[in-house]
Design brief:
7-stranded mixed β-sheet; 28% helix; 2 domains; homodimer; 6-stranded parallel β-sheet; alpha/beta; Quinone Oxidoreductase, Chain A, domain 1
Chain lengths: 327, 327
């Protein structure tokens, strides 16, 4: 089969590589498209090594068709259109994945576009619901509202009847966020999000914040939290280390949570399979009912993976970036 | 009636003050004893002002006998021995308190000693169980294991079938912790608690940490956490501001939570009444069965409140410090 090989830092080449086959409990997917994630950029730059046992090939999510089924797999059969959350290996013609990380393609979604769902859907559900317990009537502040995760988070939060505030860097992005359901749109270059969130909540603040900036926003995020608020940090685009004022945290009975999908175990409590199961049960119906849709910002042929990475790194794209592997 | 009046910073005098009476929904308690808390020391030093509407009188917990019952109170009657969590007013002959913050005195506990239960029981249950979801088989690290909160936390955690590690500053204190059920006792002056917790858990770390040191321990507490671990900060004896490494937090999918009892509302979700209800339902049976007992380190007559404060501030006491108001 063919796959993208990192020949040297950021040199991404579509080359012949050894075939993969499904192990016990795994499904083999013939890949239609792969989603691009920031973790792929780190890995392509040589700044992330996959854990022992995981594929060296980039790619944490795909859509495609089941090509083979390993031993002890029930509920999946050859020919089914699916998408999947991966530990790696998605930038390839075929990928093998534990059956618990496979999801059906929602009826209303094109097979290729489904490659943009697993990471955002699992990230958003595991964080907003399973970790932060966002509920109807609460306000969630989503930083980077026009990103892949952001565009999905807006829609899911609205489907949960929460109030959505977002930050983004351009009028175009803020317009997209509003169209997806965000009620409070904050141009972070021009406005202080802390003041704006307080103003919009009568001084109370945000019940939940979904953050991708890390250190750069830590103190202001704590300032923007309501009593009992939960700050969920899923990215560190603004650095890793910052001063935390525990007095503010105690005064608000607030929490700071760091989370990631990639290091989670395949099965068990808090595992990828547990998240995938909840996503299929809860988010897929939202998609079927039309309240949530994939937001695809750009598609590239897999051979142009490097260009896709550059676009994502530039910040000049809204929604997900996809790589087409087969037509 | 008489109460302790703060005449100037740390000048605590037993003086005649206006009588109190129960408002609608309140119970009037004739105080037998009052518990001493670190928040009282801050307030006596002029570093804490009670919120609007709360008593200016020190004292966040008492035991005593119900002397009168306000309108709309059911389930309590004059003459009943009780203890209560207060917003203030405990260093006095009488105190009025919302009925939802009143608890019966457990059968096996002396009336006076029950004054040492409300703060520790509500603090420990709200943090270890309602916030951190400590469960059987998990390891909890309790800093200041010989403190009032620490001695109670050890016993409750053991009753929940968790494994208990503690830090403390002397052999005497560590012996008390061991006697109460702590399996891992760490002399923090001589040993690195991070290394010790890792060694005791095969490198995994603590599932829950109950911390009173704040800034001074923040980074090392994060180091000592297990994957999915919860750091609960309830005190800031080591300062309020410290660098937080979000990369470590994300790598462990861990959380830092700040909490306090005092600012919580009287009723509703996460309120004092909600906590008191859970404590009465869950901790009082542990006391009745003998698994949990009040640990009283010292008792003073109420007129010697200043000496009681000095003893607590010195760190030279284990368990709770009580003030006797009536014999």
């Amino acid at each position: 089969m063919h796959a993208i090989v990192v020949e040297s830092a950021d040199q991404l080449t579509w080359l012949e590589v050894p075939d993969v086959s499904p192990q016990t409990g795994e499904v083999l997917i013939e890949v239609s498209a792969a989603g691009v994630n920031r973790a792929d950029l780190l890995q392509a730059a040589g700044k992330y090594s996959p854990p022992p046992g995981a594929s060296e090939i980039l790619g944490m999510e795909v859509s495609g068709t089941i090509a083979a089924v390993g031993d002890d797999v029930t509920g999946w059969s050859v020919g089914q259109p699916v998408c999947a959350l991966l530990a790696g290996g998605g930038y390839a013609e075929f990928v093998a994945v534990p059956a618990g990380q496979v999801m059906p393609v929602p009826d209303t979604v094109e097979l290729r576009h489904a490659a943009g769902l697993p990471e955002v859907a699992c990230t958003v559900w595991s964080n907003l619901v399973m970790t932060a317990h966002l509920s109807a009537g609460q306000l969630v502040l989503i930083h980077g509202g026009a990103s892949g995760v952001g565009t999905h988070a807006i829609q899911v939060a609205r489907a949960l009847r929460a109030t959505v505030a977002v930050t983004a860097g351009s009028v175009t992005k803020l317009d997209l966020c509003r169209e997806l359901g965000a009620e409070v749109t904050i141009a972070y270059r021009d406005e202080d999000f802390v003041e704006r969130v307080r103003a919009e909540t009568g001084g109370a603040g945000a019940d939940v914040i979904l953050d991708i900036m890390g250190a750069a926003y830590l103190d202001r995020n704590v300032d923007a939290l309501a009593t009992g608020g939960r700050l969920i940090v899923i990215g560190m685009q603004g650095g890793t280390k910052a001063e935390l004022n525990l007095g503010k945290l105690i005064g608000k009975r607030a929490s700071v949570v760091g989370t990631a999908l990639r290091g989670r175990p395949v099965t068990g409590r808090g595992s990828k399979s547990a998240i995938v199961e909840e996503v299929t049960a809860n988010v897929w119906p939202m998609i079927a009912e039309g309240g949530v849709r994939p937001v695809i910002g750009a598609e590239f042929p897999i051979a142009q993976a490097r260009a896709a990475h550059q676009l994502l790194a530039s910040g000049e794209v809204s929604g997900k970036v996809l790589l087409r592997v087969a037509d």
